[in-house]
Write a structure and sequence with these properties.
heterodimer; A: about 400 residues; 2 domains; two-stranded antiparallel sheet; about 65% helix; globular; B: about 260 residues; mainly alpha; 11 helices; 3 strands
Chain lengths: ~400, ~260
């Protein structure tokens, strides 16, 4: 209905075409993700400035206005108003709101702490109030509001039901449930064994390990950023940059054949994107040394599987060495330089666990940058054993 | 003073057998209200004032639990009309859509599930940013992480049940990851190392994905398996862990506040 009112006749909408195509181009992950990262760092550095209600309110109004204008575009509206995408739009708004809100509360508390007043939560923190009525009533109100919202939502938007399941007709694109689209987006850069199994497993392990790694006794039970810069920056980087934004890309910017489409672009099944990614081993032996792949263990396949395995490992030696160095060098180097204090306070095991989890988290952005700048496909390519990194 | 009918009821044996205390307008009765009611007994009698404000907790943990209850109730109602078989599943859902005027159960269930995923993320977000996972609450944070994973799995298993194109292909994409599990997936690294005299032990018909789907593809076996996981097993485990989670909130010093 809305789409008919607004977009019929001129599907382009109110945003001028040159601006739309510029936004479309900037929404390519290779520009979008670095831009978001820059905004993220600036947001943390200047957290006291932009979280002030007037500034943040202005940003929110501008974002809402931009979103409203974008809705007049047919293609944008079509994807945003899909029933299952509505909660994702809501989720993005809520995450943005609560990021602002928590950093705002942190900024207020940090100022109070500097003045020696202590965080707001501490004023009268020993005061206890009765659960009935003080807590029970506010829970009741929250419950009613939530119920109203759910009922209105359920009446307004019908749950979709597509055609019956047909294992012989693959839709294009086929997407996982929305909260796993960050993982599906990771498949662009890593094989399923990493993107779908090992790295998600490490996210769970890393989250569980957080309280045992974070040795900072400050900031327990109140909002603060100044007292916990490292922990909060790392968490927000993982949650916002590597999870929420990846869900956003997977949902709204990935169309047929998992190609990138700008928010105003039509999902064209026939869009052709040239893929000329190369493996590190090809670049190293063929592109750089110009020797071809090594055959140190005998060239003919008749030499047995052990020789073949030796040749595969020799071929992938540059990548294997790089990966091993990536995992082995930073812990001791960091322990004796910039993170000396961390190492002293955390001890050997906890420090190494922290660095390993950080390196695992950073392996995604690193692979992205390598893909965008060098067209790197795999650092280690051993399709023989399904071992591609 | 003459007794009103309400007073008559309140002083009757039946009423007094159910409610062991008077109207909760005195400190004593308010304490008893929380203590003598099993549902309110999830709470302590008194809470830290600073932890009470919506500005501090955002109510997200409580809302997640509430949404779990909404999902349970609407889910039970949906179970009356749904058969998890390849022939019936889609038609049952279509019948719910076509033959129930003003029906909202499926909508409540679906949108409530999306909302629960979001609220559980935001709950984790709040707990991290207030440092509430710090001692003595480390273990309860881990329980919470498992509950977060279970919430995603609940939603994931429920995704298949409508048995439409969206369902079957979303689960196909998601479960295809399992065949790349190291050692246990037939396309995973190390699987070829698990062999006896050159005969591989891991095939597409007995690997991790097969275990998840009860078959090499998303078929009727997977539908039944996901149905049982969705309606019985995961809610069962999640309920136990929720009990642990709430219990530990109280045992670890109540709602978090500045130490």
């Amino acid at each position: 209905m809305l789409s008919l009112l607004l977009a019929e006749g001129h599907g382009g909408g109110l945003i001028p075409a040159p601006v739309r195509s510029a936004i479309d181009r900037l929404c390519d992950p290779q520009y979008f993700l670095p831009l978001f990262f820059v905004a993220f760092v600036a947001g943390l550095v200047f957290y006291r400035k932009w979280t002030q209600p007037k500034v943040a309110g202005g940003i929110a109004l501008a974002a809402l206005a931009g979103f409203g204008l974008a809705l007049t575009n047919h293609n944008f509206l079509e994807i945003v108003e899909r029933p299952d995408n509505i909660p994702i739009v809501g989720m993005l708004g809520l995450v943005a709101f609560f990021t602002w809100y928590s950093l705002r509360l942190a900024a207020v508390n940090d100022e109070r702490i500097e003045k020696g007043e202590g965080p707001i939560e501490k004023t009268g923190s020993n005061d206890r109030v009765l659960v009935w009525p003080d807590l029970v009533f506010s829970e009741f109100i929250a419950l009613i509001l939530c119920t109203v919202l759910l009922v209105v939502w359920a009446i307004a938007v019908k749950a979709p039901l597509e055609d019956p399941a047909n294992p012989f007709k693959t839709p294009n694109p086929s997407k996982a449930p929305w909260y796993f689209l960050g993982l599906q987006e990771m498949l662009v850069y890593y094989d399923p064994w990493l993107a779908g199994v090992v790295l998600p497993g490490l996210i769970i392990v890393g989250l569980c390990a957080a309280p045992y790694i974070d040795f900072n006794p400050k900031g327990n039970g109140y909002y603060t950023f100044k007292e916990r810069r490292f922990a909060i920056s790392a968490f927000l980087f993982g949650f916002l940059n590597l999870w929420v934004v990846m869900v956003l890309i997977g949902t709204f910017l990935r169309g047929p054949n998992w190609n990138v489409f700008g928010p105003f672009e039509k999902w064209d099944v026939h869009k052709v994107v040239v893929l000329n990614n190369v493996n590190l081993s090809e670049g190293f032996w063929i592109g750089w040394l110009k020797t071809g792949f090594p055959a140190w263990f005998g060239a003919s396949p008749a030499n047995g599987s052990l020789a073949q395995a030796g040749n595969v490992i020799a071929r992938e030696l540059p990548g294997l060495v790089l990966v091993l160095l990536y995992l082995a060098v930073p812990p001791p180097v960091l322990a004796s330089t910039v993170m000396k204090g961390f190492y002293k306070r955390m001890g050997f095991i906890r420090f190494n666990l922290l660095v390993f989890l950080m390196l695992s988290m950073m392996c995604l952005p690193i692979k992205m940058i390598l893909r965008w700048t060098l067209n790197l496909k795999y650092l280690v390519a051993m399709p023989e054993w399904f071992l591609n990194i | 003073m003459a007794k009103t009918p309400l007073d008559e009821i309140r002083s009757s044996q039946v009423w007094r057998s159910i409610f062991r205390h008077g109207y909760p307008d005195t400190e004593r009765n308010r304490t008893l209200a929380a203590l003598s009611n099993i549902f309110l007994h999830l709470h302590p009698v008194r809470v830290r004032k600073s932890g009470l404000g919506v500005r501090y907790t955002w109510c997200m943990g409580g809302l997640t639990f509430f949404l779990f209850l909404v999902e349970t109730i609407t889910g039970i109602l949906l179970m009356f009309y749904y058969r998890p078989t390849g022939d019936a599943a889609y038609n049952d859902i279509a019948a719910l859509r076509d033959h129930v005027p003003l029906g909202v159960m499926r909508e409540l269930h679906r949108w409530g599930a999306h909302a629960m995923v979001v609220s559980v993320w935001l709950h984790m977000f709040r707990v991290f940013l207030t440092g509430s996972y710090k001692p003595p609450r480390e273990f309860n944070w881990c329980v919470g992480v498992i509950l977060l994973v279970l919430t995603l799995l609940l939603s994931f298993t429920g995704y298949l049940l409508p048995w439409d194109q969206l369902a079957i292909w979303a689960i196909t994409v998601g479960s295809n990851m399992a065949r790349a599990t190291p050692f246990l997936g037939h396309e995973g690294p190390g699987a070829s190392a698990l062999s006896v005299h050159g005969l591989p032990l891991i095939h597409s018909s007995d690997d991790a994905r097969f275990g998840l789907l009860a078959g090499p593809l998303v078929g009727e076996g997977a539908l039944l398996r996901f149905y049982v996981l969705h309606c019985i097993l995961i809610p069962f485990v999640a309920s136990i862990l929720m009990a642990v989670h709430f219990w530990r909130v109280r045992k670890d010093g109540g709602i978090s506040g500045p130490m």
